[in-house]
Design goal:
about 250 residues; mainly alpha; two-stranded antiparallel sheet; 13 helices; 2 strands; about 75% helix
Length: about 250
């Protein structure tokens, strides 16, 4: 199973599109952390410490897009190559193969997302911000939970859902997850069946915003709640369990 996951990683790192996106993200990180034109609500942000949360928000968005791109076609491509039958004939179970491909997507997504943060880490070292470096690394580690969950969802959906639709669903889940807390506030203002339906829908959508809030708390040296992270990891466990479901008929 580990061999299949590593093969997925090796195949993905050959993609020029991913490297172009990664380099673009690296440049954006440099501009955000070193440029003098960054401002929010008309106020210029000059301190490096104040720029870090902005830079991490941008990188998390790009990392999520990369994750969807990485996880979208891995399993469908294996179906199209007609190599699945050969692998299964060697005694490998279908769920093991699907799980390995999903794990490969998750690992690749995390690695590429971490690479986007590399310039930020370098600048923390150059500027001697050791205290900020440790908090930044911890914050990135927490944010990787969202990347892992998004990758697993898109990967599992790709077993049954066509690529174009899966891409739209992945983007929708990401944005709904990012605005989860806001949507929860809106649902509390509703009444009757609308409130019930919306709350049920939010219950099925991972709360990316809560994980981002905990990552921000780490960065700002505030108290961190463990419960949202545990919930997301449990969500990840459940999604990975869905690899046991039957795959496409052609497999």
């Amino acid at each position: 199973m580990l061999a299949f996951a590593m093969n997925t990683f090796k195949e993905k790192i050959r993609s020029k599109t991913l490297y172009i996106t990664g380099i673009t993200g690296f440049i954006l990180m440099l501009l955000t952390t070193t440029g003098d034109g960054l401002s929010i609500n008309g106020q210029r942000i000059l301190l490096f410490e104040d720029r870090v949360p902005v830079a991490m928000s941008i990188m998390q968005f790009l990392g999520s897009l990369l994750t969807i791109m990485i996880s979208l076609q891995t399993i469908p491509n294996e179906f199209e190559r007609k190599t699945t039958h050969l692998i299964l004939s060697r005694g490998v179970k279908r769920w093991q193969y699907m799980f390995s491909l999903t794990a490969g997507n998750i690992f690749t997504s995390v690695v590429f997302t971490l690479s986007l943060y590399s310039s930020l880490i370098v600048f923390c070292l150059i500027l001697g911000r050791s205290h900020l470096l440790m908090r930044t690394l911890a914050s990135i580690l927490v944010l990787s939970v969202n990347i892992m969950l998004l990758s697993s969802i898109v990967s599992v959906l790709s077993i049954r859902v066509p690529g174009f639709i899966n891409g739209i669903v992945g983007l929708a889940l990401y944005f709904l997850g990012v605005f989860h807390n806001l949507l929860k506030t809106v649902s509390n203002a509703l009444e009757g069946i609308q409130r019930i339906v919306m709350k049920l829908g939010l219950w099925l959508i991972p709360n990316f915003s809560e994980v981002q809030r905990q990552a921000s708390n780490i960065l700002l040296n505030r108290a961190v709640e463990i419960t949202p992270l545990v919930v997301q990891l449990l969500f990840l466990y459940i999604v990975l369990g869905l690899t046991f479901l039957p795959v496409r008929k052609e497999v």
